[in-house]
Design brief:
Radius of gyration: 22 Å
Largest sheet: 4 strands, antiparallel
Strand content: 25-35%
Number of domains: 2
Oligomer: single chain
Structural class: alpha+beta
CATH class of the largest domain: Alpha Beta
Length: 242
């Protein structure tokens, strides 16, 4: 059996789109499948700060970000659904794909472009496709946060050996650490902290079950950065009505 659409008689050369019942059912199932994707993290960074951009470049498997780029970080569930989300985002505008990570339970991607409107447009198209809104993303749960003052030499050496992508921490510096769930929220915390204070970005892990951020510097600078990072996290939850 064949079904069809209404023909447009006003246009030059009548056009008609014909689909079979089986094709219509397939498209319906596809739409339902896409809208079953859960939005965990939606993080828009208006302007990547130099240290964070450099750090993300060390782990990027795709196009490299540069300072000042707008960035959209998305995390979805299930993990393999990130391929569909990536396809939708890249076809919506001229954004560049920097990262795409498929984990056991979640999938994450990073999109970059110099023009904020391109990044936001791709984000809007993704949200519409999966039937979600920014306010429906998972809330940012802070599982640990702390400032450790006057790091000892032994502690600093071990941190530097474990974290080989960011800058090094020196003995005597203060250190701010933050752990969040979902993981991607540490990116906005890191970016806002770097905007607010003269600190050193040591480590930013935005994938996995938990996100982890390590910043270092003089005590006053670290305290100021920590306050900015926590404001960024609270802003996420305020928008979600948490």
């Amino acid at each position: 059996m064949i079904t069809g659409t209404v023909m447009d008689s006003d246009s030059e050369g009548a056009s008609c789109v014909i689909t079979t019942d089986s094709e219509g059912a397939r498209l319906s199932r596809l739409s339902s499948h896409v809208q079953s994707i859960e939005l965990r993290t939606y993080v828009f960074l208006d302007s990547l700060q130099p240290q964070l951009a450099a750090y993300m470049g060390t782990v990027s498997q795709g196009f490299l970000p540069i300072p000042g780029d707008a960035c959209l970080w998305l995390e979805v569930s299930p993990g393999m659904a990130v391929h569909r989300v990536t396809d939708i985002a890249l076809k919506a505008s001229t954004v560049r794909l920097g990262q795409m990570i498929v984990e056991r339970a979640f999938g994450s991607l990073a999109l970059y472009h110099r023009d904020q409107s391109n990044v936001l447009h791709s984000g809007d198209v993704v949200l519409e496709a999966i039937g979600s809104r920014v306010e429906q993303r998972s809330r940012a749960d802070v599982t640990w946060t702390e400032i450790i003052r006057a790091i000892t030499p032994d502690h600093a050496v071990l941190i530097n050996r474990q974290n080989r992508r960011g800058s090094m921490i020196q003995a005597g510096m203060s250190m701010f650490i933050l752990e969040t769930e979902p993981a991607g929220y540490v990116l906005t915390a890191a970016n806002e902290a770097e905007k607010a204070s003269n600190i050193t970005v040591v480590d930013v892990k935005g994938v996995g079950a938990f996100g982890r951020l390590t910043l270092a510097g003089r005590e006053g600078d670290v305290e100021e950065a920590a306050a900015a990072a926590m404001r960024a996290v609270h802003h996420i939850n305020a928008r979600a009505g948490a």
